[in-house]
Amino acid sequence: MSQWLNNWTEGAFLLGIAMIIGQVILAIIAFFIARSIGTRLIRGTFSKMERQKNMSAGRVQTLQKLSVNAFSYVLIFVFITIVISIFGLNPTGLIAGAGVIGLAIGFGAQGLVSDVVTGFFLLLEKQIDVDDYVTAGGVDGVVEEVGLRTTQIRGFDGTLHFIPNRDISSVSNHSRGNMRALVDISISYDDNIDHAIAVLQQACDRIAAEDPTIKEGPNVIGVQGLGDSDVVLRIIAKTENMAQWAVERKLRKELKEALDANNIEIPFPHQVYIEK
Amino acid sequence: MSQWLNNWTEGAFLLGIAMIIGQVILAIIAFFIARSIGTRLIRGTFSKMERQKNMSAGRVQTLQKLSVNAFSYVLIFVFITIVISIFGLNPTGLIAGAGVIGLAIGFGAQGLVSDVVTGFFLLLEKQIDVDDYVTAGGVDGVVEEVGLRTTQIRGFDGTLHFIPNRDISSVSNHSRGNMRALVDISISYDDNIDHAIAVLQQACDRIAAEDPTIKEGPNVIGVQGLGDSDVVLRIIAKTENMAQWAVERKLRKELKEALDANNIEIPFPHQVYIEK
Amino acid sequence: MSQWLNNWTEGAFLLGIAMIIGQVILAIIAFFIARSIGTRLIRGTFSKMERQKNMSAGRVQTLQKLSVNAFSYVLIFVFITIVISIFGLNPTGLIAGAGVIGLAIGFGAQGLVSDVVTGFFLLLEKQIDVDDYVTAGGVDGVVEEVGLRTTQIRGFDGTLHFIPNRDISSVSNHSRGNMRALVDISISYDDNIDHAIAVLQQACDRIAAEDPTIKEGPNVIGVQGLGDSDVVLRIIAKTENMAQWAVERKLRKELKEALDANNIEIPFPHQVYIEK
Amino acid sequence: MSQWLNNWTEGAFLLGIAMIIGQVILAIIAFFIARSIGTRLIRGTFSKMERQKNMSAGRVQTLQKLSVNAFSYVLIFVFITIVISIFGLNPTGLIAGAGVIGLAIGFGAQGLVSDVVTGFFLLLEKQIDVDDYVTAGGVDGVVEEVGLRTTQIRGFDGTLHFIPNRDISSVSNHSRGNMRALVDISISYDDNIDHAIAVLQQACDRIAAEDPTIKEGPNVIGVQGLGDSDVVLRIIAKTENMAQWAVERKLRKELKEALDANNIEIPFPHQVYIEK
Amino acid sequence: MSQWLNNWTEGAFLLGIAMIIGQVILAIIAFFIARSIGTRLIRGTFSKMERQKNMSAGRVQTLQKLSVNAFSYVLIFVFITIVISIFGLNPTGLIAGAGVIGLAIGFGAQGLVSDVVTGFFLLLEKQIDVDDYVTAGGVDGVVEEVGLRTTQIRGFDGTLHFIPNRDISSVSNHSRGNMRALVDISISYDDNIDHAIAVLQQACDRIAAEDPTIKEGPNVIGVQGLGDSDVVLRIIAKTENMAQWAVERKLRKELKEALDANNIEIPFPHQVYIEK
Amino acid sequence: MSQWLNNWTEGAFLLGIAMIIGQVILAIIAFFIARSIGTRLIRGTFSKMERQKNMSAGRVQTLQKLSVNAFSYVLIFVFITIVISIFGLNPTGLIAGAGVIGLAIGFGAQGLVSDVVTGFFLLLEKQIDVDDYVTAGGVDGVVEEVGLRTTQIRGFDGTLHFIPNRDISSVSNHSRGNMRALVDISISYDDNIDHAIAVLQQACDRIAAEDPTIKEGPNVIGVQGLGDSDVVLRIIAKTENMAQWAVERKLRKELKEALDANNIEIPFPHQVYIEK
Amino acid sequence: MSQWLNNWTEGAFLLGIAMIIGQVILAIIAFFIARSIGTRLIRGTFSKMERQKNMSAGRVQTLQKLSVNAFSYVLIFVFITIVISIFGLNPTGLIAGAGVIGLAIGFGAQGLVSDVVTGFFLLLEKQIDVDDYVTAGGVDGVVEEVGLRTTQIRGFDGTLHFIPNRDISSVSNHSRGNMRALVDISISYDDNIDHAIAVLQQACDRIAAEDPTIKEGPNVIGVQGLGDSDVVLRIIAKTENMAQWAVERKLRKELKEALDANNIEIPFPHQVYIEK
C-alpha cells in the first residue's frame, strides 16, 4: 500500500514538476515576444516623431529611453508575479508593493486622460476651430492648433499659449456670428437729453450708411446711468465678426465730433467747493 | 494500482487538455464577434454624426480611429486575461498593471459622467430652456442649446459660450416671471425730502400710466442712503420679463427731467475747503 | 477499474453539463424578469412626471430612452459576468474593465448623493421653509421650493435661482425672529456731541411711538467712529421681521430732518488747503 | 461500484438540495426580521421627531418614506447577493454594479460623517457653548445651539445662521476672558506730542475711575503712525467681556472732548497747493 | 456500501454541526467579552474627562452614549459577518453594504488623523511652545495650549482661537530671536537728503544709547522711495523679542521731533494746480 | 489500515515539511539577491550623481541612506509576507497594515508622477526650450533648464525659480514669433482728432523707416477710449521677438515729442469747480 | 470500514488540532518578539531625540507613549486576524472594520509622505541651501535649516517660519547669481527728455565707477511710461547678489540730486482747474 502511495506521490510530483517547467518556459517565451514587440513599437513611434517634428536626436533619445525603460519595468514585474504564482508562492506582498507605485502613477496620469477626453469632445462638438478667436483656460487669442492633448492659442501680443485640454472647461468662442459694438457717451447734466440723443442718432445713421460691416444699428438706446458729473448715454450696434473694435473706434470718434459740432459738452469731473 | 493511477491521470489529463482547447476556441470566437459588433457600432455612430453635423471627413476619420483603437485595446486585454486564466496561470500581475491605466481613465473620465448626470437633471427639472436669459457657470446670456454634455449660451456681445454641464452648479434663470427695475436718484442735502419724493412719485405715476410693460409701481420707497454729498432716494418697479432695462432707462430720463422741471438739484460731489 | 473511472467521469461530466445548462436558463429567466420590471418602472416614473410637470413629450422621450439604455447596459453586463462564471471562466478581466467605467460613474454621481443627503437634512432640521428670506449658496432671496435635489430661490430682482443642495452648506435664514435696523449718522467735529445725541434720541423716541413694527429702541448707542471729516453716531433698533429696511429708511429721513431742525450740520468731506 | 457511485452521487445531491433550501429559508426569515425591525425603528424615530420639533405631517411623511425605501433597497440587495451565492452563482458582477452606487454614496455622505466627527470634538473640547459670541465658518454671532450635525449662530442683525459642523474648522471664541478696547486718535503735526499724550492719559484715568467694566488701562501707548496729515496715537484698555464696544464708544467721545477742551486739533486731511 | 456512505455522511454531518455550534458559541463569548471591555473603557475615559474638565453631566452623557453606540454597532457588524461565514454563507453583500458606510467614515475622519499627525510633529519639532507669539492657520496671537488635536491661540484682542492642527501648515513663530523695528519717515523734495539723514541718525544713536532693548542700530539705511510728494527714508533696528513695537513707537515720536527741531518738513500731499 | 493511514499521513507530512523548507530557502536566496542588486544600484546612482553635480559627501550620504533604508523595508515586508504564506498562515492582516502605509505613500508620491508625466510632454511637444522667455506656473522669465521633474526659470530680476513640472499647466511662450508693441497716447478733448492722428502716423512712419526690428506698422488704429479728461489714441506695431519693449519705449518718446512739436497737448487730469 | 473512517477522522482531527496549537504558539512568539523589538526601537529613538534636541522629559514621555500605543494597537490587530484565520474563521469583517481606520490614517498621513518626497528632491536638486535668500511657500527670508519634513526660513523681520515641505512647490531662490537693481524716475512733461536722459546717464556712470558691487550698468533704458502728470524714465543695473537694495537706494538718492542740480523737476501730481 505504501508502495502504491510512493508511486502515486512520485507520479504526481513528477507531473507537477513537468507542468511547472512547461509553464515557466511558456512565460519566458511570452515575455520575450511581448518585450520585443513593445520595444519595436516605441522605437518606431519616436523615429516617426523625430522626422515629422524635427526634434533634436538627443531629446528623442532621452524620451525613447524613458519609455522603453518604463515598459520594461512593467513587463518584468508582470513576468515575476506570474513565475512566482507558478511556483505556488503567494505574490500578494509583491503586488501590494507594486500597487503603491501603481496608485501613484494612476493619480499622476489622470490629468493626461482628462486631456484626451476633453480634447475628444472639443473636436467632436466643434467648439474650437483653427483661426477662431476664443477665450479658453484664462487665455485670449486666435487658435493655432487643436490637438488631443494640448490646444495652442496665439495671444494678440504675439505670445503662443500651450493649454492642456483639461484646463479648457468653458470655451468662449468669439467667432460664431455677428458681434456687438458698444459705446458709452457722457453728456452734461445741463444739456437737453432729447436733443443729445437726436444728434447722436443722426451721426449713428450716417455711420451705418457708410460702413458695410455694420449689420444692425447703431442705435442710442437711452440713459444708461446718472453719474457723479455726467448723464451716460449708451449706443449699441451689431457688426460683422471681428469688425466690432473698428466700429467702436469709429463710433467714438464720429460721435465725439457730432457732439462738438452741436455744442454739446462731454463733461469733465465736477466738484462743488464750499469755502469756510 | 499504479496502472489505475496512470489511466486515471491520463484520462484526467486528456480531459483537461480538451477542455482548455475548447475554452480557448470559445474565447476566440467571442472575441471576434465582440470586436466586429463594436467596430461596426462605432463606425455607424460616426458616419451618422458626419452627415448630421457636417464635420470634415478628416476630423471624423481621426476621432473614429481613436475610438476603434481604444475599443480594440480593451477587448484584447480582456481576451488575454481570459486566455491566461484558462491556462491556469494567475493574471493578477497583468490586471494590476491594467488597473493603473484603468484608475487613470476612471479619474480622467469622471468629468464626463458629471456632465451627463448634471445635464440629465438640467433637462428633467426644466431649469434651463432654449431662449431663456440665464447666468450659469460664470457666463451671462441667452441659451442656444441644452445638451447632455454641454450647454451653449450666447452672450449679449455675440460670443458663443460652450459650458460643460458639470460647471453649471447653480443656475440663475432671469426669464421666469416679472423683473424688478431699480433706480437710485440723488438729491441735495438742502432740498426738502418730502417735496422731492412727491415730485418723483408724480413722474412715476405718469410713466406707469404710459408704459404697458410696467406691472407694479414704480414707487419711491424712501431714503436709501445719506451719502457724502447727497441724499439717495430709491425707486422700484416690477416690469414684464426683459423689459426691466428699458424701463430703468426711461425712469432715469424722466425722473431727471422731472427734478429739473421742479428746480431740485442732482448734486455734484461737495467738499469743504479750509484755507490755512 | 478504468470502467469505473469512465462511468464516474461520464456521470460527473453529464451532471456538470446539466447543472451549467440549468444555471444558464435560470440566469436568462432572471435577466428577462429584471429587465421587464426595470423598464416598466422607468416608463411609469416618466409618464407620471410628464403629466405632473407638463414637460414636452420630446424631452421626456429623450430622458426615458437614456434611462432605459443605462439600465439595460448594466443588466447585460451583470448577465454576461454571471454566464461567464457559470462556464467556469474567470470574469476578472471583464470586471476590471467595467470597474473603470464604474469608478468614473461613482465619482461623477457623488454630487447627486451629496444633493440628496444635504436636502434630507435641510428638510429634517427645518433650516429652510418656503417663503423664508435666506442667503444660501451665494444667493439672496425668498425660497420658492425646497426639494431633495435642488432648492429654488427667487432673488429680489425677479431672477429664479436653482441651487443644487450640495452647494448649500451654510444657510443664513433672515426670517427667524426680529431683525436689527442700523443707521449711522455723521455730525460735524464742531457740533456738541451730547446735544446731537439728545436731538437724535428725541426723534428716535417719537418714531418708536409711531411705528408698531419697531420692537426695541431705536437708541443712539454712541460715537461709533471719528472719521476724516465727521463724528459718526450709531442708532440701533429691533424691528419685526422684514420691516427692518422700511424702518431704516424712515430713521434716515426723520433723523436727517431732526438735525436740520436743530441746526446740526451733516458735514461734507473737509480738506485743509495750504497754498505755497 | 457504479451503484455505490450512484448512491453517493444521489445522496450528496439530495443533501446539497436540502442544504440549499434550508439556507434560502433561513435567508428569507432573516430578511423579514431585519426589514420589520428596521422599518419599525425608522418609523419610531420619525414619529418622535414629529412630536418634538412639531414638523408638518406631510414633511415627516416624505422623509420617512425616503428612509424606509433606502433601507429596503439595501436590504433587498444584501438578500439577493446571499441567495445568488447560495445557488453557487458568482455575485461579483452584481456587487461590482452596487459598488458603483456605494462609492457614490460613500463620497456623497462623507460630509455627514465629517459633521458628526467635528461636532463631537466641538462638544468634547468645549470650544463652543450656547450664548458664546463666536466667529466660525465665516459667520459672526451668538451661539444658539450646538448639535452633532449643525451649529446655529444668531448674527447681530437678527439672521439665524445654520452652519454644518464640517465648515467649522477654526473657531474664534470671543467670550473667553477680558477683551481689548482699542481707539486710535489723530492729532495735528503742529501739536506737541507729549502734551497731547498727557491730556489723553488724564482723560483715560478719569474714565477708568468711573467705569467698573474696565479692568486695565486705558493707556496711551504711543505714536502708532505718522499719517499723511496726522500723527496717530493709540489708546488700549482691557475690559470685561462684551463691554469692549461700549468702552470704545465712551473713549472716543471723552477723548475727543478732552482734546477739544485743550485746543488740540483733530486734523482734517491736508494738501499743499502749488499754483502754476 | 451505502451503509458505509450513510455512516460517513452522518459522521461528517454531525461533526460539521458540532463544529458550527462550537464556533458560534466561541464567537458569542468573544463578542460579549469585547463588548464589556470596550464599554467599560469608554465609560472610564468619559468619567475621567468629566472630573478633569468639569464638563456638565448632560454633555458627558450625550457623548458617552454616542461612543458606546458607535462601538456596539461596529461590534455587532463584525459578529454578524463571522456568524454568517460560520454557516458557510457568503457575507460579501453585507460587507459591501458596510464598506459604503466605512468609506464615508474613513473620508470623514481623515481630518482627525491629519490633526494628530500634524500635532505630533508640532510637538516633536518644537515649532510651537506655550506663550510663543505665532501666526498659524490665519490667526495671530499667543499660544495658550498645544494639543494633539487642537492648538489654542489667544488673539491680542482677547479672542481665544481654537485651531485644528490640520489647519496649521506653515507656522510663523515670532518668538525665536531678536526682531526688527522698521520706520519709514518722509521728507520734502526740497530738503537736503544728506542733512536729513544726519539729523535722523543722530536721533537714532541717542535712542540706541538710552534703550537697552535695542540690540542693533537703529540706522538710516537710505532713500527707500521717491513718492508723489515726499522722499521716503527708512530706519531699521534689531530689538529684543516683543520689544519691536515699543521701539517703533519711540522711534516715530523721537524722529518726528528731531526733524521738527531741525526745521525739516514732513510734507503733506502736494498738487500742482493749473487754472484755465 | 490505520498503518496505511499513518504511512500516508507521515509521508504527506514529511513531503509538506520538505516543500516548506525548500520554499523558505528559495525565498531567502531571492531576498539576498534582490537586496544586493538593489543596494548596489542605489549606491551607483548616488555616486554618479555626486560626481556630476558636485554635491557635498554628507548630503549624498543622507539621501543614499534614506533610499537604501526605504528599499530594505519594502523588501523585508515582501519577504515576510511570502514566508508567512509559505507556512500556510494568512498574511491578510499584515498586508492590510502595510496597505495603509502604501496608500499614504501612493497619495504622497503622486505629485512626483505628475511631474514626470508633464515633463515628458513639455519635452515631447517642444512647448519650452532653453532660452525661451516664458510665463509658466505663475513665474515670468527665461528658461535655464527643462528637466523631467523640475523646470528652472531665471526671472528678469535675477531670481532663479525652480518649478515642479506639475505646477506648469498652461505655458505662455513669448519667444515663438513676432511680438506686438502697443502704446496709448492721450490728447485733449479740445484738439482735432484727425490732425493728431495725422501727426502721430507721420512720426510712426519715420520710426518704422529707421528701425529694422519693426516688422509691421506702427499704425494709429483710432480712438480707443473717451476718458475723463482725455481722448485716448492707440498705436500698434509688430516687432521682432524681444524687441517689443525697446520699440514701445522709442514710440513713447518720439510720439510725445511729435505732439509737442505740433502743439498738441497731452492733458493733465481736469476738474470743473463750482464755488458756492 | 466505519472503523477505518473513525480512525482516519480521529487522526486527521488530532493532526488538525495539533497544527492549530502549533500555529497559535508560533504566532504568540512572533507577536512578543515583534512587540519587544518595536518598543525598544521607539524608546531608543526618543531618548536619543531627548538628548539631541533637549526636549522636556514630559513632552518626550507623551510622544513616546503615543508611539508605543499606536504600534501596539497595530500589532494586536495583526495578531488577532492571524489567530482568527488559524481557527478557520473568516476575519473579513474585522479587516473591513480596520480598513476604515486604515483609510482614514492613509489619507491623514499622506501629507507626511508628501513632505518627505518633496524634501528629498529639495536636497537632491540643491534647490535650497542654508543661508540662501528664498521665497517659498508664501514666505520670504533666509533659509536656516532644510530637513526632510520641514524647512525653516528666517524672515527679515526676525520671524522664524516652519514650512512643511509639501507647501513648498515652487522655490524662488534669490541667491543664485547677480541681481537686478531697478529705479523709475519721473520727469515733467515740460522737460526735454533727451537732456534728462543725458543727465541721468552721467550720474549712472559716475555711480558705476564708484561702486564695485555693480556688475553692469546702470543704464537709462528709456521712456517706460507716459503718466498722468509725469514722463517715467527707467534705470536698470546688474549688481552682486544681495547688493541690489543698497544700489537701488544709492541710485534713488544720486539721481534725484543730479536732476536737482540740473534744474530738472520731479513733478508733483498735476490737475487742470476749470472754474464755473
Task: Give me the secondary-structure topology.
The structure is a homoheptamer of 276-residue chains.
Chain A: H1 2-53, H2 57-86, H3 92-124, E1 133-136, E2 139-146, E3 150-154, E4 160-164, E5 171-173, E6 179-187, H4 193-210, E7 214-226, E8 231-239, H5 244-261, E9 270-275
Antiparallel strand pairs in A: 1-2, 1-5, 2-3, 3-4, 6-8, 7-8
Helix pairs in contact in A: 1-2, 4-5
Written account of the structure:
7 copies of one chain form a homoheptamer. Chain A is an alpha+beta fold and 276 residues long. Chain A folds into 3 domains: 2-108, Helix Hairpins (Orthogonal Bundle); 118-173, SH3 type barrels; 179-261, 2-Layer Sandwich (Alpha-Beta Plaits), CATH 3.30.70.100. Chain A is 55% helix and 22% strand. At the C-D interface, helix 1, helix 2, helix 3, strand 5 and strand 6 of C face helix 1, helix 2, helix 3, strand 4 and helix 5 of D. Strand 5 (171-173) of chain C pairs antiparallel with strand 4 of chain D, so a sheet runs across the interface. Chains A, B, C, D, E, F, G: It comes from Halalkalibacter oceani. Chains A, B, C, D, E, F, G: It is found in: Cell membrane. Chains A, B, C, D, E, F, G: Residues 183-266 form the Mechanosensitive ion channel MscS C-terminal domain.
Q: And the CATH topology of the largest domain in chain A?
A: Helix Hairpins
Strand order across the largest sheet of chain A? 4-3-2-1-5
Mean pLDDT of chain A comes to 82
Over all CA atoms, what is the radius of gyration of chain A?
A: 36 Å
In CATH, what is the class of the largest domain in chain A? Mainly Alpha
Global outline of chain A: rod-shaped
- Helix content range of the residues of chain A, please? 40-55%
Low-confidence stretches of chain A: none
How is the main sheet of chain A built? Answer: 5 strands, antiparallel
Classify the oligomer. homoheptamer
Number of strands of chain A: 9
* Secondary structural class of chain A: alpha+beta
Run of helices and strands of chain A: HHHEEEEEEHEEHE
Interface with most residues: D-E, 79 and 72 residues
Number of separate helices of chain A: 5
Number of domains of chain A: 3
In whole angstroms, how far apart are the ends of chain A? 129 Å
Proportion of residues in extended strands of chain A: 15-25%
CATH architecture grouping of the largest domain in chain A? Orthogonal Bundle
